[in-house]
Amino acid sequence: MTLIPVPVKDEYQSAIRWLVLSALPKVGPVRLAGLRNLAPQWPQGWLANLPAPSATALRLWLDHPQRSPFHDYVQRMLEWQQAKPHRYLLHPDHALWPRLLSEIADPPAILWAEGSLEALHAPCVAMVGSRRPTRAGLHHASHFAAGLCDAGWTLVSGMALGIDGAAQTAAMDAGGVSIAVLPGGVDVVYPSRHAGLYQRLRDEGGLLLAQRPLAMQPRAGDFPSRNRIVTGLSCGVVVIEAAERSGTLISARLALEQGREVMALPGALGVPQARGCLQLIRDGAALVRDVDDVLAELSHWLPALRCPQSPPSSDAETDGAVAGEPAGELSKELTKELTEEVAGKKAREGTKEGAREDVTEVVTEVVTEEDASPLLRWLSATPTPLDALVDLSGWQVAPCQRELMHLEIEGRAMLVAGGWVRVPQ
Predict the structure, then answer these.
(1) Boundaries of each DprA winged helix domain copy (predicted)?
(2) Which CATH class is domain 374-422?
């Protein structure tokens, strides 16, 4: 099935709508996904189903956008998109939104993207591993990444130091395609040591993605949250190396929760970076020895993935419906209401950086606020075992585990020796 790009007007209205929805207080990815599945009519159906603080904020935006704290935020995001080619605001109603990402329980409401969207149209496989790899681990990462790209797969990772960066560099060196999901804003190079890789991914056929707004530096909770996008985009994840308590194992657990394939390379018993992989294999992950083993594990995904979407055509790129190109007079008309107030304010008062910082602070607070969980009342700096949390909360084990996983993704809770602890905000 070939998807026809939506008209410019509809696309810009949808982008603005999802920018605002993603910034509402008291609404996280899980609730937004649930509301979208209800397919409420816009805007009355959303207003009726949103929590009171969210509905109030949305109503203010709808009735008086210039008075809303979202006003300058939305304007800056649209200005960023239109400033250069190949910049995109992807959202669940976008014609080129990755289908697999909509299948996870907590898809992001919006993704800032820069690079080539064609990277999303080949089947994707994630590759993750230790930030302190062995020499053998770096060799395996490069070998597997190049081989998978040669076989037509897009390699997804987080551009982290160690295995992630080595795999993505090898993918680009092999003439393949790679997607980096960043923990901060899409315009924030993290880690800074990978500035060269960042530029290659952006300019040489790869793609940069981020769920955090522009200019946002990554926080501790953004890394596991980023990882669920890495695995959500992919049919499976290959773990090259991981220590016993490595953050890489969070990616493997997320992939399992999402119904993705989990594969791991075996390593020597005495090597610390192999222990996490050996644990995964013992727990049921597929043992892979070479690229052919990975392809065999992923082969059953291919029939379902054939032609779900088509890459953007040259017509789509130039009409501004799906691309980050300046969209001409029509898009200027659509953003006129947003720009007039900002332009008028600058003309009357000049550019007041203090005022802009105040607005940015308000929007940042609104964007990052998530729903509070009932389990948080039972968590503190002292580790609490899972069975104790089950007794205290009265929940069943499975729902309790799922909620703890979401808290871990949001950076609110962490599993340590002895149980779960609350992460100070």
Answers:
(1) 368-419
(2) mainly alpha
